[in-house]
Design brief:
The complex is a heterodimer of chains A (272) and B (996). By secondary structure, chain A is of the alpha+beta class. A 5-stranded antiparallel β-sheet of chain A has the order 4-5-10-6-7. In chain A, helix 10 runs antiparallel to helix 11. In chain B, strand 34 and strand 35 form a beta hairpin. The radius of gyration of chain B is 32 Å and the shape is globular. Chain B contains 26 helices and 36 strands. In chain B, the strands form 8 sheets. Chain B has a 7-stranded mixed β-sheet with strand order 3-5-1-12-9-10-11, with helices on both faces. Chain B has a 7-stranded antiparallel β-sheet with strand order 29-35-34-33-32-31-30. The termini of chain B are far apart. Classes of the chains: A alpha+beta (272), B alpha+beta (996). Chains A and B meet through helix 2, strand 7, strand 9, helix 10 and helix 11 of A and helix 4, helix 9, helix 21, helix 22 and strand 32 of B.
Chain lengths: 272, 996
């Protein structure tokens, strides 16, 4: 379990990382926290020519509440966000999700943007970003673009990022008045990949319900003006519409069942 | 050996005058300072000789295939590669491993003509670093001819099943029946017959440190091996025979520390031989450390078992006969010490119960899975999962309290030593008292009250029990029970369990102890110091214990090693006896010096003195020094040295008799467990609410270490009950190659059990101690299963009790409405489900599509990531294909075949590929229907993926397969339409994307 040969370059700034990405394109991988990348390198599932380490870049290591969002830079660890005191008032959904996100040793190294870039269908950050209607800020030498979360995740480990693009930051919308949030997850053991994770975001007009771990990417649905009474049938129909995956730990039917059970719980919480 | 034979009165303990100041105390472990401060010395930490090379193993991605050709030229040319070991070398320098069953099955250290399980070693590369060696593996081309795999235990034994070993002609490599008493009459006259069929899965106890070895070939001096292999050292003989050298030419040493073993490090056996051959080929020392993927895939597994068990029962619950029909699934090869999983427990198959009649039918089958071997609890979990589930069923079916069933069937206190029906000589115990302790203090009453309360609220709460014998100190002859009495008579008897220990005293009075035990972190140094300190009247810290083991220098025999819970009873016992022998020698010298009778000599507080004349005293060190400095003072008939070695074997361990009765172990502890579980109706999660485990392991040498053993075994058993299983696909693909898929419990997942003790000393071991390292591995899985069965009122319970599985038993209660019809009544299999069907509309006509199929250039455009495509026959092509999913990339050599062409309506497109990531194979029918100048394309596919990618990425295979197929057919539509430009993000989307 040793990686194939690769070159390691430590970028000191975002610009340097972008220059290297422009040079190497798909032959390069961004190394931020390495919590998924390093095992995949060791298993030789990925064999890049170059690793571009952005973990030491100052200009990518930031958290800023601005323009109605909390922007988190590419080098910012999950632990840094977790310990941000204002987080529960800024992005309560992420605050609620944290206890389910892996183990503290992994959060100490792992980055928020790395999780988004990796696009594991069971991961919590992509789910939260989708549920909140957050955005991903992509940048290449040629320019920048913002991609909404619902267009970013394309499937298992697949995203809309182009090979020369860096996820510079992700933006979680800040709490708006009269919004309610709830997060719940079912996993085999504490800190495991979610079998099913769900998030609900309610405002005065309706509810956004998002589901991770079931399809090949996080998915969400917005229900306008739905009342508690309709909820059972609505969630039930929605769970049945999902392209649920089978694996050795849980059947697709079981996953859909959990979507109903957990979905009901979180939606009841946000509507009460 | 018969039931009626009068048993000799057990001899009194050897030492009658010991002040047990230290034995029985919860002394803190001497080992921990080094381990907790990073000073442990594990195999991978030790320095190696300059010039040592590193090995990597190419392993089979197939569960079953013929090994046609191996081309390693490219690998050999890679800079830094020093040797490549292939089957030709293995055939030249070694022999197949011997095994306890006579069968033409051959097991070598590398695959020879066939590969028979995913992960089977095929080639070894030796290079200047492990990195280079692994690079070289990717350059080796192996040509396989895939064969159908057999994975299902019952199916494997059927006459028309695919056969693994052609020379054997069947997958059944052992079939024996046993009969004790008169089971037929007992069943014929029984008031009730209670029957149950159960399966025990493949699982393991996964040590934190994997196997490792450093091996050197010394020419005429043979092989020198340093490894964390744990024994039994009867297998040293197996290794020497495989290497075709005398035992003296295979020196085996252990590193000072081993990071857990749990039986599993026995599986280093074939790798020691393999690396000896690799070192011989390389002409240099070779180091190999098993990585976690290799460990989970190919080290070993507990033996899977399929059992039908039946009891003849009187109306009051008294069992008069038992019948076992058992199939053990030992993987692709029967590897020593298998089929020991059956026979370790054989003499005690009647459990803790007084059951006079017994019938047993044992069959061993082979399947395309990793060979099985020792895993903590060895043989116990399999037996008790059947027997203790049956006890629960008897209580349910006869409407009895399980406690009453236990009480009515337990061997009575006054029956010990008790000869069990199949030959086990149960040394001591008081099972009724242990039950009373466990259930006592209102513990069971409280659980029952909790259950009543929960049930009245509609919650699912169950109570389970398990009562088990915990055998320790295995009879080295038990495995010969697999042979017929005639074959045994021909081969000569095998029996006993020789343990050895050496105690010495140096010129300053320092005491050293050396044992042939090869421990893996259990605290042997601490306990041996306690035991020996008490003999000499010294402090444990004064006793230096060395547990490194060297077959060339140490006193050892075939039973040496770290298994069958033999430490407390046998190894510590032998150390005690060796110390006594040395003490007696000192006492005789002291008596001569003091002019007193030897019997009056005492050893206390570092002094040797006469109890009759306390002024006659000498410091311990002074007397010891005399033996070294003035041999003239040593009594005339004594030798001058102060070093004694004792070999001890319990006399009760006789060879199996002509009626197949065998005393399989020297001591039998007892465990009685009670557990309460609650099942979440919504999610199917099993929560252990309370767990009470009561142990009788005879004399406890160190109660803190005893509790540590119990907690560790309990944690692993919770894993076996709820989480852990080695999973295989129907095609034999291995699916549990990482700790993300093989789910061992973490400390968050394991509740703290209530641990209670009873001590009825064994009359057969020197210290009265019995083993207690494996009890909960045997009792806890079935105890939890019984609780779940009770909670759900079901008969069939299979391990592990994962939420998905339990939820299927609870029943998914879908609400009324549209979804009701969408929910199948039966949950579908939790397999990989690698099948995909889809319909896409394409603008090409069906005829256009067939034009593509007839044009290799266009076909090459259709296959995503296709580098080149060459025809190798009609409608049959070979290509290099790079599959890319996110950052995962694998280059496959692929064969594509079109068949059943029915233009312009349908065809079958099949493909198979091989890469360093493994093999995959898929086939599907494509049907086309014209639609508005275009066509509707429907595909229906099934695929198999095996090897590394399946072992580590099983969680994502379903979606990955769907993605690759969708990509393929969308591309087919595009190419058929004439739009061969690869689809990229359309320019307008790029423009309209919000620009920052």
């Amino acid at each position: 379990m040793k990686p194939a040969k690769f070159d390691y370059i430590r970028a000191d700034s975002a610009d340097e990382a972008l220059r290297l990405l422009a040079e190497y394109g798909d032959e390069a991988r961004i190394l931020a926290g390495g919590q998924s990348l390093m095992p995949m390198l060791n298993m030789r599932l990925t064999q890049p020519q170059v690793l571009i380490d952005i973990s030491q870049t100052d200009d990518l290591n930031f958290m800023r509440a601005e323009d109605g969002t909390l922007r988190i830079g590419a080098a910012t660890t999950q632990a840094r966000l977790e310990w941000r005191e204002q987080l529960k008032n800024e992005v309560p959904l992420v605050h609620q999700a944290f206890p389910h996100i892996s183990h503290f040793q992994i959060r100490n190294r792992g980055t928020v943007c790395g999780s988004i870039a990796h696009a594991d269908p069971s991961a919590e950050f992509p789910l939260c970003l989708l549920a909140l209607g957050g955005e991903i800020s992509l940048r290449s030498k040629k320019g920048s673009r913002l991609v909404p979360a619902n267009e970013f995740f394309l499937g298992t480990l697949r995203t809309a990022r182009e090979p020369d693009e860096l996820i510079e930051s992700v933006s979680f919308p800040l709490l708006k008045p009269r919004q309610q949030f709830a997060f719940d997850e079912f996993s085999m053991r504490h800190g495991d990949y979610a079998i099913v994770a769900v998030a609900a975001v309610a405002d005065v007009e309706g509810v956004t319900f998002a589901v991770g771990g079931v399809a090949d990417r996080p998915v969400s649905q917005y229900w306008r003006g739905v009342s508690g009474n309709d909820m059972d049938a609505v969630i039930n129909d929605y769970s049945q519409s999902l392209d649920a995956q089978n694996d050795q730990h849980a059947s697709a039917i079981y996953r859909k069942h959990l979507v109903r059970v957990l979905g009901k719980r979180v939606i009841e919480r946000v509507l009460s | 050996m018969t039931n009626n034979k009068t048993l000799s009165t057990p001899s009194p303990p050897t030492s009658t005058r010991l002040n047990n100041l230290h034995v029985g105390q919860p002394l803190e472990r001497f080992e921990d300072n080094a381990l907790l401060s990073g000073r442990g010395l594990f195999i991978d930490d030790l320095g190696v000789k300059p010039g040592t090379l590193y090995a990597a193993i190419l392993r089979s991605p197939h569960a079953h295939a013929r090994l046609l050709a191996i081309n390693s030229e490219k690998a050999a040319q890679l800079a830094g590669v020093r040797a490549i070991l292939t089957r030709d070398d293995v055939k030249r320098w070694s022999a197949p491993f011997v095994v306890g069953v006579k069968s033409p099955m051959e097991c070598w250290s590398l695959a020879i003509e066939k590969v028979r399980y995913v992960g089977e070693p095929v080639v070894v590369v030796v290079a200047e670093s492990r990195y280079i060696a692994e690079d070289a593996l990717d350059l080796i081309d192996v040509e396989y001819q895939a064969l159908p795999a057999i994975v299902e235990i019952v199916r494997a034994g059927e006459s028309n099943a695919v056969v693994l070993h052609d020379a054997v002609g069947s997958n059944v490599v052992s079939d024996r029946s046993f009969r004790y008493g008169d089971p037929e009459s007992a069943f014929a006259s029984a008031a009730h017959r209670v029957e149950l069929t159960v399966d025990y899965p493949r699982n393991s106890c996964t040590p934190i440190e994997c196997f490792g070895c450093v091996v050197e070939y010394l020419g005429d001096d043979g092989y020198d091996v340093l490894s964390n292999f744990m024994g039994p050292f009867s297998l040293h003989t197996v290794m020497a025979l495989a290497l075709k050298v005398p035992g003296t030419k295979l020196r085996h040493r252990t590193p000072p520390d081993s990071g857990g073993s749990f039986g599993v490090k026995q599986s280093g056996l074939p790798y020691i031989v393999l690396m000896c051959l690799a070192a011989r080929k390389a002409g240099a020392p070779v180091k190999w450390i098993e990585d976690r993927l290799e460990h989970l895939t190919a080290a070993t597994s507990a033996t899977a078992r399929h059992t039908t068990i039946e009891a003849a029962v009187q109306p009051d619950g008294k069992i008069t006969a038992l019948r076992y029909d058992q199939i053990d699934e030992c993987g692709a090869y029967l590897r020593a010490p298998e089929p020991a999983t059956f026979y370790r427990m054989h003499g005690a198959l009647t459990g803790a119960y007084d059951i006079p009649n017994l019938a047993v039918h044992n069959r061993v089958v082979l399947t395309n899975k990793t060979p099985t071997g020792l895993v903590r609890g060895f043989g116990g979990p399999q037996v008790y999962f059947a027997l203790e589930r049956l006890i629960q069923r008897i209580a349910v079916e006869l409407k009895l309290d399980p406690i009453d069933v236990y009480r009515r069937n337990f061997v009575q206190k006054n029956q010990f030593p008790y000869r069990a029906t199949a030959g086990a000589l149960l040394d001591s115990g008081d099972y009724h008292a242990a039950l009373a302790i466990g259930a006592g203090d209102s513990r069971l009453a409280r659980l029952r009250a909790k259950q009543d309360a929960a049930r009245s609220e509609g919650r699912l709460y169950g109570i389970g029990f398990a009562a088990i014998l915990e055998p320790s100190i295995s009879n080295m002859g038990y495995i010969s029970t697999v042979l017929s009495p005639e074959a045994r008579a021909k081969a000569g008897p095998k029996n006993g369990a020789i343990s050895s220990a050496t105690v010495a005293i140096d010129p300053l009075g320092g005491v050293t102890v050396v044992v042939a035990s090869a421990p893996a972190g259990q605290g042997h140094r601490t306990v041996l110091a306690q035991v020996v300190a008490d003999v000499f009247g010294l402090q444990p810290k004064d006793i230096q214990v060395n547990v490194e083991f060297d077959t060339e220098k140490d006193a050892w025999s075939v039973a040496a090693g770290n298994y069958s819970s033999r430490f407390a009873g046998a190894v510590a016992g032998a150390a005690h006896l060796a110390a006594i022998k040395l003490r007696d020698k000192l006492a005789r010298a002291a008596a001569q010096n003091f002019g007193v009778d030897t019997s009056s000599i005492s050893f206390e507080n570092g002094k040797i003195f006469s109890r009759m004349q306390p002024d006659k005293a000498q410091p311990f060190a002074r007397l010891a020094a005399g033996f070294h400095w003035s041999p003239a003072l040593v009594p005339a008939d004594e030798s001058p040295g102060l070093r004694e070695t004792v070999f001890w074997s319990p006399e009760q361990l006789a060879a199996p008799d002509a009626d197949d009765r065998v005393n399989t172990s020297a001591a039998y502890g007892f465990v009685f467990d009670i557990c309460g579980v609650e099942i979440d109706r919504d999610t199917g999660r099993v929560r252990i609410d309370d767990y009470i485990t009561t142990h009788d392991a005879g004399t406890l040498l160190n109660p803190a270490l005893a509790d540590g053993q119990i907690r560790g075994g309990f944690a692993q058993a919770v894993g076996a009950a709820l989480l852990e299983e080695f999973r295989y696909g129907d095609d034999g693909a291995f699916l549990s190659g990482t700790f993300a898929d093989y789910l061992a419990p973490t400390s968050c997942d394991v509740p703290e059990p209530t641990i209670l003790h009873l001590e009825t000393p064994s009359p057969f071991t020197p210290l009265g101690a019995k083993g207690l390292g494996e009890g909960n591995n045997m009792s806890t899985p079935v105890c939890i299963a019984n609780a779940v069965a009770d909670a759900l009122n079901v008969k069939e319970v299979t391990l592990p009790l994962t939420p998905s599985k339990v939820m299927a038993m609870v029943g998914i209660n879908a609400p009324e409405g549209r979804a009701q019809s969408a929910l199948p009544t039966m949950p579908n299999q939790e397999g990989r489900g690698l099948s995909a069907a889809g319909t896409i509309d394409i603008s090409a006509t069906p005829e256009n599509v067939f034009d593509v199929l007839n044009d290799p250039n266009k076909l090459a455009q259709v296959i995503p990531g296709c580098h080149n495509l060459t025809a190798i026959g009609k409608d049959h092509y070979r290509a290099d294909v790079t599959i890319k999913i996110g950052i995962v990339k694998a280059r496959y050599q692929v064969e594509v075949k079109l068949s059943e062409l029915d233009p312009p309506r349908s065809f079958v497109l099949s493909g198979k590929g091989i890469s360093a990531m493994g093999v995959s194979e898929g086939s599907g029918r494509i049907t086309l229907a014209p639609r508005d100048g275009g066509a509707t394309l429907h595909y229906d596919y099934s695929a198999n993926v095996s090897g590394k990618v399946a072992a580590i990425g099983a969680r994502m295979l379903d979606s990955a397969a769907k993605f690759v197929l969708k990509q393929l057919f969308e591309k087919l539509g595009q190419v058929a339409t004439g739009d061969s430009v690869p689809p990229t993000r359309p320019w307008w989307q790029k423009l309209t994307a919000k620009v920052k």
